[in-house]
Amino acid sequence: MVLKMVSGYFFPNFLIGVILTLLPHTVGARPSSAADVIDIAARLELFVDHYLIDAFQGTRLRLHEPRAAGTGLAFDRPWEGAFSGYVTVMYDGSLYRMYYRGLRTAGKDGSELESTCYAESRDGIHWVKPDLGLHEVLGSRLNNVILHRSSSFSHNFSPFLDKRPGVDASERFKALAGTSKTGLYVFVSADGIRWKKWKDEPVVREGAFDSQNVAFWSEAEKCYAAYFRTWTGGDFKGFRTISRATSPDLLNWSAPVMMTFGDTPPEHLYTNQTQPYFRAPHICLALPMRFVPGCKVLTDDEARMLGVSQGYASDCAETVFMTSRGGNRYERTFMEGFIRPGLDPGNWASRSGLSALGVVPTGPAEISIYKQAHYAQPSNRLERYALRTDGFVSVHAPSAGGEMRTRPVRFAGKRLVVNFSTGAAGGVRVEIQDEQGRPVPGYSLEDCIPLVGDAIERTVTWKRGSGVGALAGLPVRVRFVMKDADLYAIRFRE
Fold first, then answer.
1. Whether residue 471 sits in one domain with residue 352
2. Pairing label, strands 38-41, 409-411
């Protein structure tokens, strides 16, 4: 006989419906069907959207601002320069890898002046440009160039680590590259340095591609997903936007579908920088550059003093934050800038909001994002920005206090851990409820030992202990009552 717990007692399944109709319901709790219950298993869940949230009371979602952490890489080699960009950063075991376009002077997309450059790091903070000796550039092989005189492909060469199960080691690195004239080609590599075309023909042909076009294996959807530049009006008209195609094998792709952004106004999204978050790969983070054409902030004199190339001082840009849980929908929970141009006047020139593809760990409690500074200027470089681990968005409670309750979830695990931060006079208490919103005996708010402090992972404890294994597999809600606190993520662990 299958038993289910209701209000602390176990009953046969056939009696559950009768019992629930006789028990008082908590005001505001919404009954749910089995289809409404979200199975989060033992996944890390970030509060970057409203997916898990049923109700706020005195709390809200808060977007956190990354902290400037110094120069990551200067584009200062003779074959790099003012128009270097379209950066990809990845963490490959113990080695961080960086790829970017080297370009000294602006020109037509896919010109022979473009090359693909490589840098590496042991910590994601200090970078070196190895002399690889692969190509002769400007009369010497002492350079970090991995692709040269590849015209259309060095313009926006964007690698990824192929995490599809069973991928051959000789092709564990893949890359998309190409322009509107060529379409997107796939390149492969065993070591991330020596590359070759996978097929001598494009795999995606429909799109503008005049930007950094990205791909990855989506473990959540069991397919490859590619995100690339299109235009809302087609044929380079309207707004710069993002389309998506999927493939089971990187060769056969679905027809591109334009991404949606909810009920938000159209904007020029110059890049998309969409990628599964490495700690929660079912959630894709996107850090596109919002381009604002015609927004001139620098005076002509300021632009001359900075050395801004002609034609690159009449627009501005910044990095914004979006998420997706698959399909052709982005969540634009926040319309505000994620990384603003800031006090540095050089970042108010056109396209200085180009963020790199890739969010990587750079410490036990830190992740890093990289963004260009001073684009189209002699001082063009890549800056590093730091956040606490999982620290993009939090459920925030002011000093007056508030609470948040989740939708019904089903979990696997024996304890609940949270990523949180409080003030000295703040705190967080946690209550586990049944799906009707009634406290489960032993896991009520009054039973919870208050959480005070700051931790990437802290186990929630009640008077009876931290064990929640008896509730695993059952539909429950989790209620957080907070004061001067931020809740970033939760996870049920063994």
1. no
2. parallel
